[in-house]
Amino acid sequence: MFAFLEGSLAHSSPSLLYMNVHGVGYEVNITLQTYAKIQHLEKCRLYTHLQVREDAWVLYGFADEEERATFRQLLNISGVGAATARIILSSLTTDELERAVSGEDSKALERVKGIGAKTAQRIILELKGKLQKRAGASATSPAVHNTTQEDALIALVNLGIARSMAEAAIKKLGDISSLSVEDIIKQALRAL
């Protein structure tokens, strides 16, 4: 619903901030990693994730898109809710989490409050390879802009296609470097 918020910080603490966006105050839950990046700023942009629950709408904010994407990946894991995902990303940077997952270092995850051996193994199993792809993509492209392939993937997922199916359909296309986002989407839809 909200891709990002940009405004002045009315109040900030290591876990929560109030952001004034054109006279509207948003209460945003943040990680320690995000707090470290924005604590000395008066104005900033936070990439957001809105969680709608039966009893509340909770807004989470992240200093960069990579952290938000990792948060969303964690939410897809059984037994990992928003509070646990936020604790993980407060305890480990996205790079440290990627190294723990790729190195199958369950002990690093178990050191995070609330993460037991089974949950650590489940996180490693579910995220293996997923974080590496994003880290590799961000190393070759600017952090601010998605690649054409990433834009197409996001569009397909927003159309209601499962991420794994969308990724497989894009892979079937072969060399897509000369295609526009629209062409990739059209061809991927045909390949499904």
Automatic annotation (TrEMBL):
SMART domains: HhH1 (SM00278). The keyword Protein biosynthesis does not apply. Residues 144-192 are annotated as: Domain III. Pfam families: HHH_5, RuvA_C, RuvA_N. Residues 72-91, 107-126 form the Helix-hairpin-helix DNA-binding motif class domain. The RuvA-RuvB-RuvC complex processes Holliday junction (HJ) DNA during genetic recombination and DNA repair, while the RuvA-RuvB complex plays an important role in the rescue of blocked DNA replication forks via replication fork reversal (RFR). RuvA specifically binds to HJ cruciform DNA, conferring on it an open structure. The RuvB hexamer acts as an ATP-dependent pump, pulling dsDNA into and through the RuvAB complex. HJ branch migration allows RuvC to scan DNA until it finds its consensus sequence, where it cleaves and resolves the cruciform DNA. InterPro entries: DNA_helicase_Holl-junc_RuvA_I (IPR013849), Hlx-hairpin-Hlx_DNA-bd_motif (IPR003583), NA-bd_OB-fold (IPR012340), RuvA (IPR000085), RuvA_2-like (IPR010994), RuvA_C (IPR011114), RuvA_C_sf (IPR036267). It comes from the Bacteria. Residues 64-141 are annotated as: Domain II. Keywords: Cytoplasm, DNA damage, DNA recombination, DNA repair, DNA-binding. Homotetramer. Forms an RuvA(8)-RuvB(12)-Holliday junction (HJ) complex. HJ DNA is sandwiched between 2 RuvA tetramers; dsDNA enters through RuvA and exits via RuvB. An RuvB hexamer assembles on each DNA strand where it exits the tetramer. Each RuvB hexamer is contacted by two RuvA subunits (via domain III) on 2 adjacent RuvB subunits; this complex drives branch migration. In the full resolvosome a probable DNA-RuvA(4)-RuvB(12)-RuvC(2) complex forms which resolves the HJ. The keyword Hydrolase does not apply. It is found in: Cytoplasm. This is Holliday junction branch migration complex subunit RuvA. Has three domains with a flexible linker between the domains II and III and assumes an 'L' shape. Domain III is highly mobile and contacts RuvB. Belongs to the RuvA family.
